[in-house]
Task: structure prediction
Amino acid sequence: MLDLIMRDILGTPAILVGLFALIGLVLQKKDIASIVSGTLKTIMGFVIIGAGAGVIIAALDIFGQMFDEAFSIRGVIPNNEAIVAVAQDAFGVETAMIMVFGMVMNIVLARITPFKYIFLTGHHTLFMASLLAAILSVSGLDGTLLIIVGSVLLGLCMVLFPALLQPFVRQITGSDDFAVGHFGSLGYFVSGTIGKYAGNKEHSTEQIQVPKQLGFLRDTSVAVSLTMTLLFVVVAIFAGPAFIETELSDGSNYIVFSIIQAITFAAGVYIVLAGVRMLIAEIVPAFKGIADKMVPNAKPALDCPTVFPFAPNAVIIGFLASFAAGLFSMFLLPLFGLAVIVPGLVPHFFTGATAGVFGNATGGRRGAILGSIANGILISFLPALLLPLLGNLGFESTTFGDSDFAIVGILVSWLVSLFS
Amino acid sequence: MKKILVVCGNGLGSSFIMELNVKKALEQMGKEADVSHTDLATARTEPADIYLGAQDIIGTLDDGSKEIVALENVMNIEEIKSKLDGKV
Result:
């Protein structure tokens, strides 16, 4: 009986998160219909993430083989959804536990410390929980200790990163109503700081005419399909038709095969996103409801696109500058003996754009450009440095994309090594 | 009951916060509607009475037959209220 509870019920992450959703819904005194559908959808969300992972891994495996054949070096595409879906297989239970208790720690810390932030970007909470589960496991922790350490660290991340950014957010929004809760904070902080010393905020990006056509890149499925098709086709040309058609595609044309693999990858990301959306749909409102009662004067820390409307030109400029820095870094990385981090449109769009908004608020045009370039370099080099610390997970062709995941992973790994 | 679909690029963070704000706005207006959130790609094919999102991206959904509500400041409840007024 105990074995059934411990191993099969609490040991199955999908059921575990379903249980958390169930408790949350009961505590909120929802009606039976909402409790049943909310619990089932949360479980289904977790199962969907696993299904998406299968699709992504198949396409990534082919990309990895092609890249290796073409350049005789490892190529890694940072994509949070992909790496979390892959990691869920090995660290699902730890991730679910750290996510839920990390949210509890967030409320506790917001209550007792001056950092009154409630981190509402649920998918990033999930991603950070996954990173911590992986890093702590590889560092040798396990069981209850891993979950306690992971939850405390996650809770700290959820209040300290928004606190770090708040002085800049006040400058951007002209108010103190909300904070930015997005784990690209290091890049935004660096961008804001560079802007402060290197730029002039009077020369704002918003005085320039910028074409709005790049807005379609905010559609994640379009952005992912587009980048992946480009990457796959370029790598396929270097790998050559002979290798692909004999080893991988079973005779079908290498370009057609590559395009289909690229879109398969994008489809996998779309599936994972749908799963994440279902998974957090019940958990975040419950978290917010509890937080509102426990920490009356808390500020919500929100996803990064909430600052985009404050400087739409800086969004486009920041993305382009960050992506250019990512391309440049791609060629520099092998010189340092690091894995090649292939720049992805999604991380560069969201974090580059946000870095642009931060840099513009403190340093105008020059701040936006230099700050976003710094962000682009950070999200190329930091993930490369993180890879060897992820154990078996580091051998996948994907990894965590945003700066905070990498810096937290590197610091935690180093701290744990001091104690062991 | 009318269905309001709140949209952002990823269908995760921003649209989710906007959904909470739309629900709060409806409550203050004393109106009821079925509110949910999703990403741009899904929104193109998901039927709804009103599509709501940030000004810079919601425009791409406008095919002439959809009821679109574009927000300048996604955090401003007053703006949501005034723009939804008369539509729900």
